[in-house]
Amino acid sequence: MTETATFGGGCFWCTEAAMKELDGVESVTSGYAGGHVEDPSYEAVCRGETGHAEVVQVEYDPDVLGYEDLLKVFFTVHDPTQLNRQGPDVGTQYRSIILAHDDDQLELAKAFVVELTEEGAYDDDIVTEIERLETFYEAEQYHQDYYEKNPNDSYCTFNAQPKIEKVRQKFATKAN
To answer: What is the CATH number of domain 3-170?
Structure first.
């Protein structure tokens, strides 16, 4: 039996590639969530017209990988203190967001942020939004498995590859 988690931490290509490194992750789908327009296009999301964030939906085996493990990876592969940006990508579509599928995920995510804050894990305040997922829209096909299909793309080399390496180093026992 699989469970689903949804995260937005900048460009979905990078988050997708990092999450796919984990043992227990069965699939990762890039998409859009958290906005106000039905079935948005990539172009409309990029222009900031829809309110959506670029997100990934992670299908995982909870017997192999827990939701809290996914939270740890998520907070490792992006900067949750940057408001509406990650690296070179700027705009609300690149905001840090956790979209919970149920009350347990909602509470776990909130508690995790409190724990990080109390630990002083970051020099600046965590700005990650945490809310219930209303609707997930799958991104266009050419966005799916983007890193795998384009590993030599300069954007991937400079942005996705370091995230993948972080996962491999920090989560070696959880990595494929």
So the answer is: 3.30.1060.10
